[in-house]
Amino acid sequence: MEKNDQVSAVVRTMQILEILSREESLGLTEIARRSHIHKSTVFRFLNTLSRLGYVYRDSLTDRYGLSLKLNALVGIRSGSQDILRYSSSVLEHLARETGETIHLALLEDGALIYLRKIESRHSLRVATMGSSVGASVPMYCTGLGKAILAWFPLNEQEKYIAHQVFTQYTGATITDGPSLLTELAKIKEQGYAFDRQEHEEGIVCVAAPIVTSGQLPIAAISIAGPSVRMGDETLHHYVDLILAASREISEKLGIMKDVI
Fold this sequence. Notes:
Blueprint: H1 3-21, E1 26-27, H2 28-35, H3 39-52, E2 55-58, E3 63-66, H4 75-98, E4 101-108, E5 111-118, E6 136-137, H5 143-149, H6 154-162, H7 177-190, E7 193-196, E8 203-211, E9 217-226, H8 232-253
Antiparallel strand pairs: 1-3, 2-3, 4-5, 4-9, 5-6, 7-8, 8-9
């Protein structure tokens, strides 16, 4: 391939990716229309991107969307460095406002990894298992994990469920795929997630995701506390705080947050 052709291929590839980043999914004809690239060429590029794992094709609707693999190129890099830097003052403000334990977690290679934890200043505080920085916890039964899962495309949610072994941590743990999908749809609609003692007895939290303009979830933040302090009135007050915090972090990262 000549050098000019190689450059042109890169330009068209990025053009297609940028178009897909603005929608949950699009059909081949619409992608060709928006890109002003011939359908056969778009089809060829999409096939390559699909084989590489950056684009998925929904066999039922014949529409294409971005996969979560792009997080490895964009989200993870910004997550491990920029998110920590730009979220620091926001998380500290949340800790001062609530007095509760604040978590920041990152989606990395399909796992939920804790990046930061600010301990509660109360004498009665949450003693969470495995929430230390660098630790990984299940996504289906934590507020942070569900907040991220809710922004997966449906086919990615179904893939996650198909490979997940559900453990009954408490009586409130969701342990089946259909119930989890229903819960994730509700979370996506409202923009935040609750964990009402689903992973650990006596611990409740509210969480919100940090989502890119292409609606790819890259991280989440949460306010966690003992159930005796986290009643409905308090939780719903914290919803406003967690959503404002997630928006502020997104703005500092330069992410246009228009999905929450």
